[in-house]
Amino acid sequence: MLHGFAGKILHVDLTHRQLTIEEPDEAFYRLYPGGSLMGLYYLWHNTPPGIDALDPRNTLTFAVSAPTGLPVSGQSRCTATCKSPTTHGVADSQAGGFWPAELKFAGFDAIVIRGASETPVYLWVHNGEAELRDAAHLWGHFTHDVDTMLKDELGDPKVEIAQIGPAGEKLSMFAAVMNMSNRAWGRTGVGTVMGSKNLKAIAVRGTQQPQPADKKAVVALSRRGPKLMPERRDVESLGRYGTADAVMGQEGAGGLPTRNWDSGVMGIDEAEAISGERLYLELLRGAGDGAQDKLGRDTCYACIVRCKRVIEAEYRDMALLPEYGGMEYETISTFGSYCGVSDLRAIGYASQLCNMYGVDSISCGATLAWAMECYEQGLLTPAETGGIPLNYGNAEAMVAMLEKTLRREGFGDVLAEGSARAAARLGKGHEYVLTVKGQEIPAHMPHVKRSLGLIYAVNPFGADHQSSEHDPMYHPKLYEGKPEAPGYKRYLAQIGLTTPTAPKAMNPEKVEFALLTQYNYSAADVLGYCQFVFGPSWQLYGPQEMADLLAAATGWDVGVDDVQAIGRRRLNLMRAYNAREGLTRDDDTLPKKLFTKPLSGGRTDGMVLDPAELDAALTMYFELAGWDVETGTPRRATLEEVGLGWVAEALSL
Ligand code: SF4
Q1: Which residues pair with residue 436 across a beta bridge?
Q2: Which positions ≥6 away from 332 have C-beta within 8 Å?
Q3: DSSP state of 283
Q4: For residues 509 and 495, what is the distance between their CA atoms, to the nearest angstrom?
Q5: Alpha-carbon distances of 375 from 5, 259, 412, rounded to whole Å
Q6: What is the structure's pLDDT at 480?
Q7: Tens of pLDDT, residues 256-303
Q8: Is 418 left (phi over 0), alpha (psi -120 to 50) or beta?
Q9: Would 468 disulfide with which of 100, 441, 455, 478, CB 3.0-4.6 Å?
Q10: What is residue 482's predicted lDDT score, i.e. its pLDDT?
Q11: Is ligand 1 within 6 A of the CB of residue 530?
Q12: How far apart are the first and last CA of the chain?
């Protein structure tokens, strides 16, 4: 008997309006237990090489895993996979909330969507059944309004809804899929692909609880989180201040990307004005009465950390509404420090607009920052921007340009293409574009985290800050004089990492750290684990518990090595898919500006990255991964070792 999984995968052909249910055998689930590992299997088999990402044949999969829906903190995450319109390779994006668990309760491990509808539709999935319904009445509405309309229409407030917003309808290249109107499958253009299919929403609801193989083990693991939480100051702090807690640390290290990465510091007063603490004290719901811990924090299914923000305030005469959540660190940085803006309420309003229209706040904010640098350098004129003075620090201009971008009005129509395409369309500003594989880079600077820079370059779906552990967790200072091994040391040792090295060092130990933690984070994404709960940084659960929960859910005899192997298999399948689509080692690099323009101010003053250092690190990384050092494609022997011999055949390796 298959435990943990629902045992069913829903296939949706939008062109022919056909729905079919597949019941794979256990051998399939063992090789492809969820997330983009499962999604890529379908993407590979359903699509011919080289199709455009907006071709109806593109296959969009939402997949969870065996632990999803169990009453343990940090298990309710789902991955969306397809071919990316941004990178032209694999698209991969995770979101949390309650939708992932509810998909399992509705009776499915994954939804695989092909084709395109001629008219807008939504998918209604409930207790093992599914149907397509007309969505013309939902088209054009903001995300929270659609949430309300669909819950009313389906007669159940507990229905969970994944949807595109108006930006996805207009095929913004950084459109997101939203759930709860504040959780985003944001990166790599998955919302653009869903929009191209005329699929407005996927509503899920059910009562089919997952049946784990070992209920007692699940209960024991579920109790571990609350027991450890008071001892883990970092997790407590994450819960209280959210990911925005990172702002001041980044500023202190010279790693807060400022003015389109001209600097790693905003200045202490400006950084403090957009800090997690300021957000907590001033904007969270209930802050006026000191009740923000009760009213201003939200969570995902069964998670005790409650790190999500709920804000209730005003920006000028506009309301900041609690239903659109609050800002993560990345959003604060891209609309704040990237743009030189220190008005936290303006940033809150920008975040709300992103969630209303449904876009990735990283790529969107970073694209505005790119336009600001072009404007400051005289490459863009007021005539081109519709009279909006796009100077750094001008919060009003930032918000005005954002609104135009979300509506694709005037110059906003150009910016809705993302910075790389916008530069190509205008024929200028290339030197200020900060993308990897066409996607804007997130708000952690390789100048102070060298392994992260390597992962930014090599990651199959563009620069990502949640695809490996960050360098400071491997800092020798953290380990000195601590024979009793703090959590991060214990957890990193479980995956074979025992030789810490400085954050700014790039050496074989650091490359090994990058790759082995990348496998671990990759496995977390496959298994639907939140990296704020399962990871060395936060330390409620580590690699051993990742294996223990998978074993308890499925009854499989799995350990840490098996978890690492799952992560490695996903990474290899992604790289192989990218090779099929024409990506090579030449795509594994960082934006030119990072190699050529020294940072100014703070602890990173004068710093530039060294292209030779990155090149050498890439070669070490490919050797260690078992990939061809010339092309970056997995070798046949490596693919066979990870159970993907058929991929080697398909690529004629
Ligand atoms: S730590 Fe935060 S993001 Fe992760 S599952 Fe818990 S509430 Fe959700």
Answers
A1: 439
A2: 244, 247, 274, 279, 344, 347
A3: I
A4: 13
A5: 52, 12, 14
A6: 73
A7: 999 999 999 999 999 999 999 999 999 999 999 999 999 999 999 999
A8: left
A9: 455
A10: 60
A11: yes
A12: 37
CB of 74 within 6 A of ligand 1: the answer is: yes
Structure-token pair, residue 126: 């409930």
Ligand 1 pocket: which of 241, 293, 307 to mutate (most atoms within 8 A of CB):
307
pLDDT, mean of residues 29-54 = 98
Give the long-range contacts of residues 579-583, CB within 8 A, separation 24 or more: 579/631, 579/632, 579/633, 579/634, 579/651, 580/44, 580/49, 580/650, 580/651, 581/49, 581/50, 581/83, 581/88, 581/89, 582/50, 582/88, 583/87, 583/88, 583/89, 583/437, 583/460, 583/632
DSSP 8-state assignment for residue 279: I
From the CB of 533, is ligand 1 less than 6 Å away?
A: yes
| Ligand 1 pocket check for 299: Cβ under 6 Å | yes
Whose C-alpha lies nearest to ligand 1, atom 5?
74
Ligand 1 centroid – CA 524 distance (Å): 13
Ligand 1: does its nearest atom lie under 6 Å from the Cβ of 347? no
Query: Residue with the nearest Cα to atom 2 of ligand 1?
Result: 307
Distance CA 13, CA 460 (A): 27
Q: How far apart are CA 378 and CA 401, in angstroms?
A: 17
pLDDT for the residue numbered 235: 86
| Residue 306 beta carbon below 6 angstroms from any ligand 1 atom | yes
* Atom number of ligand 1 nearest to Cα 531: 4
The pTM of this model reads 0.97
Rounded to the nearest angstrom, the distance between the alpha carbon of 131 and the centre of ligand 1 is 31
Of 622, 572, 421, give the one whose Cα is nearest residue 32. 572
Structure tokens at 257: 């990307």
Ligand 1 midpoint to CA 101 (Å): 13
**What mean pLDDT comes out for the span 496-518?**
94
- For a pocket test of ligand 1, which of 70, 99, 300, 541 has the largest count of ligand atoms closer than 8 A to its C-beta? 300
* 325 vs 307: CA distance, rounded Å: 11
Q: How confident is the model at residue 362 (pLDDT cuts 50, 70, 90)?
A: very high
305 close to ligand 1 (CB < 6 Angstrom) = yes
> How close is the Cα of 500 to the center of ligand 1, in Å?
28
Cβ proximity of 113 and 193 under 8 Å = no
For the Cβ of 100 lying below 6 angstroms from any atom of ligand 1, the answer is no
pLDDT tens digits for range 312-335:
999 999 999 999 999 999 999 999
Length, in residues, of the chain:
653
Cα angle 123, 125, 127; round to 5: 170
Q: Which residue has the tokens 């796009």?
A: 390
Quick check: helix, strand or coil at residue 197? Answer: coil
Helix, strand, coil tally for the chain in percent (to 5): 45, 15, 40
The model's pLDDT over 382-431, given as tens digits with 9 standing for 90+, comes to: 999 999 999 999 999 999 999 999 999 999 999 999 999 999 999 999 99
Closest ligand 1 atom, CA of 301? 5
| Per-residue pLDDT band at 485 (split at 50, 70, 90) | low
Element (H, E) at 195: helix 190-196
Rounded Cα distance between 103 and 18, Å, is 19
